[in-house]
Amino acid sequence: MPTFKAATIQMTSTARVSNNLTKARNFVKEASLAGAKIVGLPENFSFMGKDSEKIQMLDDIAEQTKAFLSETAKDFGVYLLGGGFPTRASESKAFNSAVLFDPSGTEIFNYNKAHLFDQEVGDGVTYLESRFTESGKELPSVVETDLGFISSAICYDIRFPEVFRVLSRANCELCFLPAAFTEPTGKAHWEVLLRARAIENLMYILAPAQWGTHDPHGNRKTWGHSMIISPWGEVLAEKTEGEGFALAEINLDELQQRRKNFPALSHRLFF
Length: 271
Prior knowledge:
Number of helices: 6
Distance between the termini: 30 Å
Mean pLDDT: 96
Strand order of the largest sheet: 5-4-3-2-1-16
Order of helices and strands: EHEHHEEEEEEEHEHEEEEEEH
Largest sheet: 6 strands, mixed
């Protein structure tokens, strides 16, 4: 299937898992009715609350989320990426896991976020992801499907281009980048980083994102701007604000022709 539609869903998730999953299912349904064959959900789509609560509820969140992803992918006949949700790493820490299910509801890809966001970005919030999250120790795999070769990184991974160089060596054609980018860093860097990773590696980048305010104090705000980027760096679709999704056509024949006509990947000397 060289040509098909993809969707990247944008949400304002909360600490209420059942509400988040109900909302996510509705967006997946809408995207599938619009023709999407592959759909991505953002980082923290099933739970976005206090880290202490996340650890207390960890196994329940993971169980509910995986069951939801499998069932929803099967019900709507889509490839569905859960773009980052907590799974058990140890007694006191979680992995931040991205998991892809195929249209039969079978898990075919699992990646634990490697690069953890420990930063102060000037919005009044101190981000210390490593306090409750364990870093994944392996690079993302690349899975072969009838929609091409697919992989995913997660959020802060976008700042480490060597990850994407390795994926392009494994012939990745579509790479998800689910995120909960902060408002200051999103405004400054989100689009340029997504476009750079697409251009450098001649691959589609599918970036579902969180948007809006996520706590009652109004401190934590995410940037949104869910996008689908072409291998030439074009923004094919964008959901700037609010909840919903971006939808665009993916053309793998065009991707392969672009790689043939502009063979930068074969000119690499070091990675």
